[in-house]
């Protein structure tokens, strides 16, 4: 072998080695977090439907800002940063949803309590009968159906 063929072999080896390292680097790169971005956007929409603008505005706004930052990171090809921001946006949106649902449930419970005991909050009026008081059967003429057995259809 002459000197020229050895240097050609060396260059080929370097080119092959560089190409394989380049392919390995591509295979190890972080995939784009498109699924996470979609899940975050969906969580934000669900929070909005749950009333997060009214009941949990800080968390809702934080989720929207983090999703926008994740989109910007994707445009700059910062995939790891984009994934992290998208996950945080989804967590903030889910928190906003839960807080909104809780506030809605509390409002509904308060309304039910008011309907069940309308005099409890009115000053000067006696509270309604206690829920612990036993219920008497309704006054009826004839025989009472309280003691008669019933079938599944509700007829004696």
UniProtKB/TrEMBL annotation:
Pfam families membership: DUF4398
Keywords per UniProt: Signal
Disordered: annotated segments: 49-88, 109-156
Residue ranges occupied by any DUF4398 domain in the UniProt entry: 36-110
Composition bias, Basic and acidic residues: 62-86
Residues in the signal sequence: 1-27
Highest taxon of the lineage: Bacteria
InterPro entries, A to Z: DUF4398 (IPR025511)
Protein name (record): Uncharacterized protein DUF4398
Organism name: Azospirillum brasilense
Organism ancestry: Bacteria, Pseudomonadati, Pseudomonadota, Alphaproteobacteria, Rhodospirillales
